[in-house]
Amino acid sequence: MKRAIVGLGRQDVDTTGIKPRMEVEVLGSSSDHLILNMKDSDLKVGDEIGFDVNYSALVRAMTSPYVKKMYL
Description:
Blueprint lengths: L2 E4 L11 E3 L4 E5 L4 E4 L13 E3 L1 H9 L9
Antiparallel strand pairs: 1-4, 2-5, 3-4
């Protein structure tokens, strides 16, 4: 199994309320990291992963001082 560690955790977002926008599986999370099963994805260090979020995850992300916000 190929895994990835993402710098996003429960102190940043409700990890049960996020869904990756690519073919990967969330295996678990700690307070500051997310572990993904990469399956057949070919991510490299520094690549970005997009997520769909539910209301709970959005609220926690927007109120977290550790999450950079960019308004478009």
